[in-house]
């Protein structure tokens, strides 16, 4: 009798393990999208808003990827959080950062929307899964902007320069949101670059922000097959530097292999803090695929020299001749661990390429396209040590978890085997299927 109870118990455990495995096999599958925002908060990379690449309509999407565990870009375990965004109108072309008093809040600014009631600023608290619209004090700022890249500094100030207003005016205004006490302030425009949108912007270790490229013609037509936009993109020969401490602008002429004019590309800071890596974009029209000069360039910040880096690796495990990814436009890029992590965008075939591209940038002599993500910090980056202990404990948890599951599985199978043998002798055992409903809502 007690043996039977043990058998049922083990069967139940087996079922739990199976349901758990099944959950992991059927994660949330997002649609192809672009003009979304990405925000890295602790171990979660959040993707919000954007438009569908299939028919250019605004999408209601909010989901994240857990980056504390290894993953393969062919099998992404997205976690859906769209049930939390019922209060946020559909939008694209917004900009977002991690900030706030505890430096753990998602701040969403602006965006293109059909809803006149959409607030200028929303915040999301991941701990409690709560969104709020925020009233900001200081200057009277009611003008919504979109297609800009906002940048947060090391002190929680969110710099919002350029972009397009809801009246389709491209601006060069600098607004600064203090995400800690929720107040606005204006930044200097002396020597600021000309008004533009879809430019690249990245914070440098010296508290300056670099602004690169962009467009200034609202009428430019984007071709989603060739990624061309007519001859309407701005030059990357000059780059613009905003000093967040002294509130002033500087312009630098660049040298070397200057990328062709482009907008809608992504920019990140290299792991050594001495270079900017740009990827993709929408390009000058002079013939199909002007972007073939290269979709990936590096700007050396020590001498403002552009170069094309050496890149190896591949993005397809069974690549039929094709090795490197297609360029993408209106995607996003984040630095996570040792990778440039590129998310979604226009210009790739989703049946052939993953929504996520990983470029291992830990070696400046050779960047490597890869399909597998390893969360352990890069040997060459000293700044990413803050979350190590929790990473490790999660890792240990995962290992212990799989060990335990393994043990249960083998012990379970052994008993199943014995149970089956017994069943052949005693026909009076009735089977009950237990549905562990509290575990089935994955
Ligand atoms: C766009 O595509 C989505 C998903 O396929 C669909 O739900 C929506 O109705 C489409 N919108 C239009 C305007 O075609
Ligand atoms: C803020 O500016 C808008 C438009 O410029 C104006 O309609 C509104 O009255 C202003 N609000 C305050 C509190 O000054
Ligand atoms: C918030 O965290 C980032 C790292 O994710 C750090 O660079 C920044 O300085 C922090 N901001 C504040 C105000 O502590
Ligand atoms: C917010 O903090 C800044 C300093 O970081 C200060 O200059 C500003 O006056 C504060 N604003 C409000 C409304 O408290
Ligand atoms: C381009 O957009 C059209 C819809 O406007 C869509 O059907 C097509 O799949 C898109 N092509 C690519 C390469 O994204
Ligand atoms: C685009 O490329 C063509 C051919 O190289 C060139 O003549 C034209 O000036 C370029 N336009 C811009 C805006 O760079
Ligand atoms: C950049 O180069 C142009 C000439 O190509 C020159 O007129 C300009 O003064 C230079 N700007 C800077 C900041 O050196």
From TrEMBL:
<protein>
    <submittedName>
        <fullName>Galactose oxidase</fullName>
    </submittedName>
</protein>
<keyword id="KW-0880">Kelch repeat</keyword>
<dbReference type="Pfam" id="PF24681">
    <property type="entry name" value="Kelch_KLHDC2_KLHL20_DRC7"/>
</dbReference>
<feature type="signal peptide">
    <location>
        <begin position="1"/>
        <end position="23"/>
    </location>
</feature>
<keyword id="KW-0812">Transmembrane</keyword>
<keyword id="KW-0472">Membrane</keyword>
<keyword id="KW-0677">Repeat</keyword>
<feature type="region of interest" description="Disordered">
    <location>
        <begin position="372"/>
        <end position="391"/>
    </location>
</feature>
<feature type="transmembrane region" description="Helical">
    <location>
        <begin position="395"/>
        <end position="417"/>
    </location>
</feature>
<dbReference type="InterPro" id="IPR015915">
    <property type="entry name" value="Kelch-typ_b-propeller"/>
</dbReference>
<keyword id="KW-0732">Signal</keyword>
<keyword id="KW-1133">Transmembrane helix</keyword>
